[in-house]
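I had to read the description of the data format several times before I understood it. In essence, backbone conformation is discretised, so a fold becomes a row of integers matching the chain in length. I therefore recommend that a typical entry be quoted early in the introduction. For illustration, here is how one protein appears when written out as sequence plus structure tokens.

***
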Amino acid sequence: MTIFAALAVAATLAGPAVAAPPPPPDPQTARAQLAALEVRPSGPTTGYYRTLFPHWNPVEASCDTREAVLKRDAIAVVTDAQCRSVAGTWYSPYDGVTWTMASDIDIDHMVPLSEAWKSGADRWNTARRQQFANDLGSSQLWAVTDSVNQGKGDKDPGVWMPPLESFHCAYARSWIDVKSRWGLAVDPAEKTALETALGTC
């Protein structure tokens, strides 16, 4: 059973939450997407500022993108009048740890904002960067253990992969999906690491 299917089953048993981002394409499709990506050295961070990617947009009522992901990825979530998650259970697929406090959870950009900048987003306008930073329609945003997310930082798969090896296939498929959707390039070491991860599928 895939990580996406397992999370969906857990959500079905516990309540209406989906408990996972939209799943990426299957491994065969991911391989084709990866083969189609531009391969070039990673660009510089010159000119990059996180504020160039406005994030945590309002989604509905008082919910911003961060709160929307916390609600989406939780099992049996309870929110207050400001849409803050005050109770629930979150499974972090990067390390296989379950948490019961939203403060232990970060919302990870699968393809970090700085990484996007270095692979093509430096040529985008602010509106497109804002859409990227708040993309709920792909497997770009994940609720994960805060310390693991901080360890990842802005590293690509050529440098960092999740500690839970059984998630490497899903991680690679998700990374490729995001880069393919947004027309971002990969560097040679990144592509090799993604091919290796797809080999675990």
Q: What stands out?
A: Residues 37 and 106 are 28 Å apart (CA to CA). The helical segments are 3-14, 27-36, 65-72, 113-118, 126-133, 146-152, 168-182, 188-198.
